[in-house]
Design brief:
2 strands; mainly alpha; 1% strand; two-stranded antiparallel sheet
Length: 772
C-alpha cells in the first residue's frame, strides 16, 4: 500500500521469497497457514496495481507462489483464475507474457490435482461456461485454452458431462472475427468429438454421464446460426454422432455374455446409443433445418471444403430413417416428440419463406476494421432484414419435403395399428393448410401422396365383398354410408385397397377452400391429383358427402341464429351474408367438380361407369350400383344448374334434365348462368358427347322414357330457349334444326332399324363393322 512504486514492487518480490521459505514449513501449524493466505492475498492485490512494472513483478511473484505451494493455488483456484483473466487482457506486453507463464503453471497444478483426486473437475468446469459467452476476446481465448487442456489431459474426460453447458458458446466462437479464437475453437471441437463417438460401455462404467440429449439440443440451436460455416460444423457433429451410435454394425450378431441388449442389425445397445436414441426427437428439427441449407462451401473454409451442410444433413437423415425402419418399435415411446417436431416444421407461419430467414453476408460500413476483428465494425453473417427483397429459394422446399417423408416413415414403421387413425389426424390439417401459401407444385404433389398413404385403409379392414343390395330407404336419400358402400361395389378389390379409412381429408379441404377463396382457382388441379392417388369414384363421392354435410351444417347454424331470441339485426344480416357466401362456394366447387369430370383424363373410368347409367339402365347389380353412384353425385352437382344439366345429359337422365329446366326459378337466371351455359354448349359440341349427337336421331317406342331421343331433343330445345342471341345460340339452333328435319322424315320410318331379321347378311355386316 506504499505510495512508492519501487516499494510496492520490492514488496511483491519479497512476498514470493517468503513463500519459497515456507515451502518446507509444517503445514499443520496455524501461523504457517495464515502466513500463506496473507502472502497470496497481498500478491493478488499487487497484481491489480495501476503501475505496469508492479503488475509484472506481482505476476512473477504469483507464479513462484503457485509453483512452490501448489496446494494453495488449488485451494484458491477461482480467485487466481479471475486475476489471471485480468492479467491475460493487460495492456502491457510484458504483463501478458508473464500471465502466459502463470497460466501454464496453474494449468499444470490444477490438472495434476484433478487427476490425483485432490480437486474436483465438477467444481471448476461449470465456471468456464459463464466465461465462454463473454464478449472479451482475451477471456474467450483463455477459457478455450483451459477447456482444451482439460479435454486432453484429464483422466476419464470429465468435461463431457458438462459439455452441453458451453458447447453453444464454443460454436459461436467458430464465427469469431479473431483468427486465433476461431482456430482454438475448432481445435477444441475436433479434440472432443472423438470421445463422444466411443460406442462401448465406457459411458456406463465411468463416473460421468454424457447427456447426449442436451448436447444434441445445443447442436440443433446452433444450426440456426447466421454463419453458414458454423452450421456446417454443427451438422458435422450431429451427423457423426448419429451415424456412430445409430448405424448398424457390420459384424454378424451373436449371443453375448454381457447381458447387453441387442437390436436388429447386430448393434448392442450401450448407454451412449440409448442416450442418442432417446434424443432423436430433438435431433429431427435440426436435420429438417439443415436439409434445406443449400449454402455452398467457401473456398477459404479449411474444414470439410468438399462437404456442405445439406449433404451432411442428408447423411444423418438417411441413417436416422434406416434406424427407425430397422427397429421402429423402440421409437414408440418417442412418437410424441417426433410429432411435435414435424408439426413445428409443417405449421411454420408465413409459408415456406417464414420458417428460417436466410442469412446475408454484409461488408463493414467503415474501412478501418482490422483483420483480427478489432476496430469500429467487423464483417460477419447477419439475418436478412424485413425490408430486403429475397429471391425465391428451394432451400426450405427441401426441408418441407423431408418432413413429409418423415411422416410416412413414422406411420409405416413406428405407429401401432391402433394409433394410426389418431396419428394421421394430427397431420391432415397442417399438411393441407400449406396450400394457403401457394407452395410449389412438388410440395402439393408430395403432400397429397403422404395424405393418401397415412389415411389409407388397413389391409385387414378392406371389405372384399360389397353390399349385395341397396336398402330401400337409400333409394330416396342416398347420402349415407350404406349407399356409399353399395356404390363402391363397382370398384374391384385392388381399387378398394387404395381407399381412405375416412373422409377427413375431404372435409378439411372443403373447410379450407371455404375460408380462402383465392384457392378455388387451383381446386380442379387438386381434385385431379387426388383422382390419381385414389379411385375417382371414391373421390367424387367423398366430396359429395362432405359438401352435403357442409351445407347442412351451415343451414343448421342459420336456423339457430334466426330462431335465437338474443340475435339482433346485425347478427342476422351477418349470418345471412355468411350463408349466401357458403352457397356460392358450394356452387363454385360443384362447377369445378364438373370440369374435372368431363375434361380430366384421370376421370375417364368414372365417365365410362356413369355414361348412360340412367337412360339405359339394366337390372343387374352393377347397373344398380351405377345408378346409386349417379344419385349421390347428383346431390352435389345440383348445387350448380349447368353442372347438374351436363351431368344429367352424360348419364342419360334426359327426362330429369328437361323437367328440371321447366322449374328453373327466374331469379336464378343471371349473366353468370348465361356464361356457364355457353361453356356447356361448347362442351356438347366436342367429340366426348358424340353419343348424344347420334341419340338425337333415334325414335323410340316410348318418347317419354328417361333416356329417349325425344327427351334429349326436348331438353336441348329448352336450353335453347334460355339463351339470348349469341354464338352459342346459333350453334345449338343449327344442330336442332337439322335434327328436327331428320326426325320429321323418320316418323314414317319409325322402327326401321329394328326390322333387321336375325341372321340376315345385313346383321352380319353390321356386327362385323361394330366389332372392328
Amino acid at each position: 500500500r506504499s505510495t512508492n512504486e519501487d516499494a510496492r514492487k520490492g514488496g511483491a518480490v519479497a512476498l514470493a521469497a517468503c513463500a519459497i521459505g515456507l515451502k518446507k514449513a509444517n503445514e499443520s501449524r496455524r501461523d504457517v497457514l495464515e502466513c500463506r493466505d496473507l502472502i497470496l492475498a497481498s500478491v493478488i492485490h499487487a497484481c491489480q496495481d495501476h503501475s505496469q512494472r508492479v503488475r509484472y513483478y506481482a505476476t512473477e511473484s504469483l507464479f513462484n507462489v503457485t509453483k512452490v505451494i501448489p496446494s494453495l493455488a488449488v485451494q484458491h483456484f477461482f480467485i487466481l483464475f479471475e486475476i489471471l483473466r485480468s492479467l491475460y487482457a493487460d495492456v502491457d506486453l510484458d504483463v501478458r507474457s508473464g500471465s502466459e507463464l502463470l497460466d501454464k503453471k496453474l494449468k499444470e497444478v490444477i490438472v495434476g490435482a484433478i487427476n490425483s483426486g485432490s480437486f474436483s473437475a465438477d467444481a471448476c468446469i461449470p465456471v468456464f461456461a459463464r466465461f465462454v459467452h463473454l464478449r472479451n476476446k482475451a477471456t474467450k481465448q483463455l477459457t478455450l485454452t483451459w477447456l482444451k487442456e482439460f479435454s486432453d489431459k484429464l483422466i476419464g474426460a470429465p468435461t463431457l458431462e458438462f459439455l452441453h453447458m458451453f458447447l453453444g458458446g464454443i460454436f459461436s466462437m467458430v464465427a469469431d472475427p479473431n483468427t486465433t479464437i476461431r482456430q482454438l475453437a475448432l481445435d477444441f471441437l475436433q479434440s472432443v468429438l472423438p470421445k463422444l463417438l466411443v460406442n462401448n460401455e465406457d459411458f456406463e462404467d465411468a463416473q460421468q454421464k454424457v447427456d447426449f440429449d442436451k448436447i444434441l439440443s445445443e447442436l440443433v440451436l446452433t444450426m440456426e446460426h447466421p454463419d453458414p460455416f458454423v452450421r456446417k460444423v454443427a451438422m458435422y457433429w450431429m451427423s457423426r454422432i448419429v451415424q456412430c451410435h445409430m448405424a448398424p454394425d457390420d459384424s454378424e450378431p451373436g449371443p453375448t455374455d454381457t447381458g447387453v441388449e441387442t437390436i436388429k442389425g447386430g448393434r448392442q445397445l450401450t448407454a451412449a446409443s440409448i442416450s442418442v436414441r432417446n434424443a432423436l426427437p430433438h435431433v429431427l428439427p435440426g436435420i429438417l433445418v439443415s436439409v434445406g441449407d443449400t449454402h455452398q462451401s467457401r473456398s477459404k473454409d479449411s474444414f470439410l471444403p468438399d462437404q456442405t451442410t445439406h449433404s451432411l444433413a442428408e447423411q444423418a437423415n438417411n441413417c436416422l430413417q434406416e434406424a427407425v425402419r430397422r427397429d421402429g418399435s423402440s421409437f414408440i415411446p418417442h412418437l410424441g416428440g417426433f410429432i411435435v417436431a414435424l408439426r413445428e416444421e409443417l405449421d411454420s407461419p408465413g409459408g415456406l419463406n417464414g420458417a428460417l430467414p436466410p442469412s446475408v453476408e454484409r461488408r463493414p460500413y467503415r474501412m478501418d476494421v482490422k483483420a483480427d476483428g478489432s476496430g469500429i465494425e467487423s464483417t460477419g453473417w447477419f439475418r436478412a432484414s424485413d425490408g430486403v427483397e429475397e429471391k425465391a429459394d428451394n432451400a426450405l422446399i427441401l426441408s418441407r419435403l423431408c418432413a413429409l417423408q418423415w411422416v410416412v416413415v413414422l406411420y409405416e414403421n413406428v405407429v401401432p395399428s391402433s394409433l394410426k387413425p389418431e396419428f394421421s389426424s394430427e397431420f391432415v390439417d397442417c399438411i393441407l393448410y400449406q396450400l394457403v401459401d401457394l407452395p410449389p407444385g412438388i410440395i402439393v404433389v408430395k403432400s397429397f401422396e403422404v395424405l393418401g398413404k397415412i389415411t389409407q385403409v388397413e389391409m385387414a379392414d378392406v371389405t372384399l365383398e360389397p353390399i349385395a343390395q341397396l336398402p330401400e330407404q337409400c333409394a330416396i336419400s342416398p347420402m349415407d354410408e350404406d349407399s356409399v358402400k353399395f356404390a363402391l361395389g363397382i370398384l374391384d378389390v385392388s381399387q378398394r385397397k387404395r381407399l381412405s379409412r375416412d373422409r377427413s381429408v375431404f372435409a378439411s379441404l372443403i373447410d379450407l377452400h371455404s375460408k380462402h377463396s383465392k384457392l378455388m382457382g387451383d381446386v380442379s388441379k387438386v381434385i385431379e391429383l387426388m383422382c390419381t392417388l385414389q379411385a375417382p369414384e371414391f373421390v367424387f363421392m367423398s366430396f359429395a358427402i362432405e359438401l352435403d354435410n357442409f351445407i347442412l351444417s351451415r343451414m343448421k347454424r342459420r336456423e339457430k341464429v334466426l330462431e335465437s331470441p338474443d340475435a339482433d339485426t346485425q347478427a342476422v344480416k351477418r349470418e345471412l351474408a355468411s350463408f349466401a357466401k357458403a352457397l356460392a362456394f358450394v356452387s363454385n366447387f360443384a362447377q369445378q367438380l364438373g370440369v374435372v369430370f368431363f375434361a380430366a383424363p384421370e376421370t375417364e373410368q368414372l365417365r365410362i361407369n356413369l355414361k348412360d347409367c340412367i337412360g339405359r339402365k339394366g337390372k343387374s347389380l352393377r347397373d344398380d350400383q351405377r345408378a346409386t353412384l349417379f344419385h349421390i353425385l347428383l346431390h352435389t352437382f345440383a348445387q350448380n344448374i349447368v353442372a347438374a344439366l351436363s351431368f344429367c345429359l352424360w348419364s342419360g337422365a334426359f327426362l330429369t334434365a328437361s323437367t328440371f329446366i321447366q322449374r328453373i326459378d327466374p331469379l336464378d337466371v343471371s349473366l353468370m348462368l348465361y356464361l356457364e351455359v355457353d361453356q356447356m354448349i361448347s362442351l356438347l359440341e366436342r367429340p366426348i358427347f358424340r353419343h348424344l349427337h347420334l341419340r338425337l336421331l333415334e325414335c323410340e317406342d316410348d318418347p317419354y322414357h328417361e333416356g329417349s331421343g325425344a327427351m334429349l331433343f326436348r331438353t336441348l330445345k329448352s336450353i335453347l330457349m334460355l339463351l339470348p342471341q349469341s354464338t352459342s345460340y346459333m350453334i345449338l339452333k343449327e344442330r336442332l334444326l337439322s335434327t328436327a328435319r331428320y326426325r320429321q322424315s323418320a316418323v314414317a320410318l319409325n322402327g326401321l332399324s329394328k326390322r333387321l331379321d336375325s341372321g340376315s347378311s345385313t346383321e352380319v355386316f353390321v356386327r362385323r363393322i361394330a366389332d372392328v
